[in-house]
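QA checklist item 7 of 12: single-chain prediction sanity check.
[x] sequence parsed
[x] length recorded as 264
[x] structure emitted
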Amino acid sequence: MAAFATFYHGTMTGIEITCIQSFLDHGHDIEVFAYGDCGAPTHFKVVDAARILSKRSLFYYKSGPGRGSVSGFTNRFRYALLAGADTWWVDSDVICLRKDWPDPQTPICAAWEDEERIGNAVLRIARSLATELQERAVSLGKRVRWGQTGPELVTQVVRSNDLVAGILPSATFYPVHYGEWAKAFMPDFKSHICEVARSSYTLHLWNEMGRRVQFDKTCLPDRNSYFGALVEQHQTAKYFRAAGQPKPPGGGGFRWRSLLPFLR
């Protein structure tokens, strides 16, 4: 069993609940850090995020494609948490696929998310490196652009500390590229994802890509899709809105069957 931590701000949908439940169902321990009620099921372990950073420090991207996202703050939060805790970090849109888990003896355990950047959605890191990341992220201020204090900063710090050789292949944690995020929700690509994720530890659902096109995360996924099968496996269908039910405010405009235009 491994220990994990994540952060969520807002009210969870079935996607986040399924992701977190997947870690529990594989025998792991996971803490969800949040400011107040985040809509988590009662059996989830929810921890006051103010233990790590004051809510007054929370901010959103002001411009660019990430405008309105809390991701820039989440970057600071993850580094602050990892600087003081011996745990894995996972984003709340990461699905766990395995019971066994790496036990790294290196300063950082992470994987490439593409050919140029190291992902930080799944991260285990020495406290000294986490502290360096935290300090550099804070020094850049709150008017940062998307990714600047995330994968870009992690990649810079890894390179400056001569740790690139230890970074794992993309398929370890990111078998599906963010440009192909929609495939996880489309039946036509289920067998493809089963193949590319066959030896992966996680699958990142790339929530931000869906957010940018107002993807409806509240709608029950097609049971014949890869993610739909995971919903059945982890018995989380009750946390989604069935077809025909009213859409909640802010639920998004696109549904599972309207995703083909968003593939790269």
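[x] summary fact logged: Residues 219 and 236 are 12 Å apart (CA to CA).
[ ] second reviewer sign-off
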